[in-house]
Amino acid sequence: xxxxxxxxxxxxxxxxxxxxxxxxxxxxxxxxxxxxxxxxxxxxxxxxxxxxxxxxxxxxxxxxxxxxxxxxxxxxxxxxxxxxxxxxxxxxxxxxxxxxxxxxxxxxxxxxxxxxxxxxxxxxxxxxxxxxxxxxxxxxxxxxxxxxxxxxxxxxxxxxxxxxxxxxxxxxxxxxxxxxx
Amino acid sequence: xxxxxxxxxxxxxxxxxxxxxxxxxxxxxxxxxxxxxxxxxxxxxxxxxxxxxxxxxxxxxxxxxxxxxxxxxxxxxxxxxxxxxxxxxxxxxxxxxxxxxxxxxxxxxxxxxxxxxxxxxxxxxxxxxxxxxxxxxxxxxxxxxxxxxxxxxxxxxxxxxxxxx
Amino acid sequence: xxxxxxxxxxxxxxxxxxxxxxxxxxxxxxxxxxxxxxxxxxxxxxxxxxxxxxxxxxxxxxxxxxxxxxxxxxxxxxxxxxxxxxxxxxxxxxxxxxxxxxxxxxxxxxxxxxxxxxxxxxxxxxxxxxxxxxxxxxxxxxxxxxxxxxxxxxxxxxxxxxxxxxxxxxxxxxxxxxxxxxxxxxxxxxxxxxxxxxxxxxxxxxxxxxxxxxxxxxxxxxxxxxxxxxxxxxxxxxxxxxxxxxxxxxxxxxxxxxxxxxxxxxxxxxxxxxxxxxxxxxxxxxxxxxxxxxxxxxxxxxxxxxxxxxxxxxxxxxxxxxx
Amino acid sequence: xxxxxxxxxxxxxxxxxxxxxxxxxxxxxxxxxxxxxxxxxxxxxxxxxxxxxxxxxxxxxxxxxxxxxxxxxxxxxxxxxxxxxxxxxxxxxxxxxxxxxxxxxxxxxxxxxxxxxxxxxxxxxxxxxxxxxxxxxxxxxxxxxxxxxxxxxxxxxxxxxxxxxxxxxxxxxxxxxxxxxxxxxxxxxxxxxxxxxxxxxxxxxxxxxxxxxxxxxxxxxxxxxxxxxxxxxxxxxxxxxxxxxxxxxxxxxxxxxxxxxxxxxxxxxxxxxxxxxxxxxxxxxxxxxxxxxxxxxxxxxxxxxxxxxxxxxxxxxxxxxxxxxxxxxxxxxxxxxxxxxxxxxxxxxxxxxxxxxxxxxxxxxxxxxxxxxxxxxxxxxxxxxxxxxxxxxxxxxx
Lengths: 181, 165, 323, 398
What we know:
The structure holds 4 protein chains of 4 kinds.
Chain B: H1 2-7, H2 11-23, E1 25-28, H3 34-43, E2 54-55, E3 66-70, H4 78-87, E4 93-97, H5 98-103, E5 125-127, H6 134-149, H7 153-158
Parallel strand pairs in B: 1-2, 1-3, 3-4, 4-5
Chain C: H1 2-33, H2 49-59, H3 70-87, H4 105-113, H5 115-126, H6 130-161, H7 166-176, H8 186-200, H9 211-214, H10 224-249, H11 263-286, H12 294-322
Helix pairs in contact in C: 1-10, 1-11, 2-10, 3-4, 3-5, 3-10, 5-6, 6-8, 6-12, 8-10, 8-12, 10-11
Chain D: H1 6-13, E1 27-31, E2 43-49, E3 52-59, H2 67-72, H3 76-83, H4 91-106, H5 112-140, H6 146-165, E4 174-175, E5 178-179, H7 200-223, H8 226-232, H9 240-245, H10 251-255, H11 262-265, H12 286-309, E6 329-337, E7 340-348, E8 356-360, H13 362-367, H14 370-373, H15 379-388, H16 393-397
Antiparallel strand pairs in D: 1-2, 2-3, 4-5, 6-7, 7-8
């Protein structure tokens, strides 16, 4: 892994390795070029997935970020090389007001459905995508569920029952017992 | 049929008819999610629901007598569930298997899951569990058979609402 | 008139019984092969479950979808049923215990059995359902393809027996001392059984129904009593084809060494036993084989079975002349 | 009459001459969402020309339950309950990468014993998943009996999982930092198993021998069947290049000749301590995909047998705080699940639950290959190909 990271480091100076995951942060303008390079030069032919993160300070459900973030979409792809276990994630940031990015289909055929999913869940527009339409949700469904501003109506109607019994991990005494025995 | 509406059937005949219905339940293969695998387990040699007269043959709703809604019903699937139920010929029964189809289960707050199949179709027997054990489903089937055997033809034809189990 | 009524009644009951016996055999045989008990709690260790089935289907709602071709849809099951029941008329249970000992019994049987094809095709066509249509077309293609080897296989027997009457064929086998399957028609018998399995649309030739592909094929839209008729006919067809096979090839109502004077008593039992044995083989095949693909099925019929049956006829004819 | 129909018949079914002479209008066939062979609720919209299929469009979403959104509003221990329902045939395997990811972020070392138990149960889940595949696949090509044999043998494996975890296939057994102390924790037995149920060692041995026997039986019963071979050999060939570009993984990829197995390549569980083969196919057709899975069952059984023999003693849990809070960071953990590569990309913000959880499931990518594989296939082959991909709708739609 270290070896591969150094190799990546040669081409991408600001690549990071944390928690055994290599991340390359790129500018959205060179999105396609970077992937082409990774595929052809570093042999990362296996397209694992593509997804996005909605960074926002105000959330309707769940927890808001602890530190203030600048609202944006972060798009992440995960590529790997099957023979050698090398794996990188590539991420880029795009603005929320103009969520446009080039489609990766010309580089990886498999990006098709992943991009449709991201389009549906986040409302991100992938340019040059052959059929950018809904993947999961029924026709006529409105809203992009994965946005942090999306409300889960059931939770509005009924409080979260999980609050009542916040269950810790198995008691420490229990694990102590098995350690003794 | 007017005669039956007014007077009902004599007891022996109706009990024979009910017996036939309760032991020849053609089960519409309607596997949605996790519970469908448990239904497969019930059809397997260890539990074998064919003992009870459940025949898992029909792939078409037209020949089915009851369906086991086994798994999560999503909002996208809901119209199909309703339609398949409507395509089944009377008299027909529904077993709702598992928390998901009973009430939404672990996905109670999801944006795409129907919270309970009883919002779409009438349910005769609810089987709790996530997923219910095969024994639980068998119990559900036996309860359904009991219910069928206790049915009154007259009420059935007059479409009297019955309490779910 | 009374005689006709009795005969028709007898036919109906015999056909129904045959179907019921084979249903029990199929379901219980399947359970046995799959290491499970099968129907059990319905009563009499589960052996009366066909009764429950029939009574239940009688009670079911008979749905006729709005888009179907109503008269055709309604009458399609009747063709299938009639073709099966009529076949029972010519199968002899002894020289005298036969509803109609026709001079051209074999010809009648083969002609009537193709009537079912029309029923299947019309059922598939009239249902206004794509699965049904494809099922109907597959069924038609299959039944036509396998009708030929079926007929050609029988021709060998007819040449050897020098008669087309089913009673005559059995008598010839008694005269010979051995059934035809031993006396030179083994190839014919195998072809007949394969083609008959295809005619019954059972695994491995069940593409027209093909549960995992076409839901229920041509029966997809049928419910209630009309479906019951299809369902029963399937087993009647199986029963009667097995009975015909045992008549033509296995010596029918007679087994060697039994006295021919008592044939009226043991004849039905012997025939039933032979039929059941053949039926059991079919059950075993059904529950252990995958199904063919449509083109493989057609290849089997046209490229293997038909040439083989033609050769069989040729050889039989030569032997007949030489001997 | 009959003879006159011969040429037409030949025409309709011989592959070369379809739609050469007759201009036909294609029929649009809608398979699903409720169709017996779609393993649940996948819908395919296909154009059909006689028996030939083209322009297949899978329609997804009939089982979309919104895991990724729900994960944002649940805490880490609650998510394990949720995620083991993703691939419902092998529930246990789904927990592993998620838990491993959380542990990696918290920098917790899991006791060896817990790792071994995880490994054993993961392999058992794999076996039970492949049993279901075996039965269901035979059913799809028309053989009705093997599924009963598969179910019977699968019950034995499920019994074992149940005896340890208390659940048949949604065990929810993993905890951050280890595993849950077993349900009926028995006394110390000869292999120094203190917390696995009494008799687990013996029962596992018996069951795994049975699994190996069953795999052998499948090889003879299904694989040796001429009709089955005719239906699956050279049907639905998938090349390694296409597979990689689409992110197809797991047994399907291996059947296409790529020797890739995350069990050996990554270290989420101590697979390197055991000796096993990675079955690889040659042609990438349906038969190979079936064959690879049957062989994998045997290998899994071998791993379990070795693991149970070398089971280390020690605690099941490391000490973790009572309320789990995962520090800020992000990581991607992947694992070799029965269906292929499954991974979780966890973006943690230091809270009780993840800020974002991306679930990478194998079947999603595996199914995306369908339109290419089904182009020009015959209708019965469509079923055979679809079945050989062995997808689970929960795994596709999430």
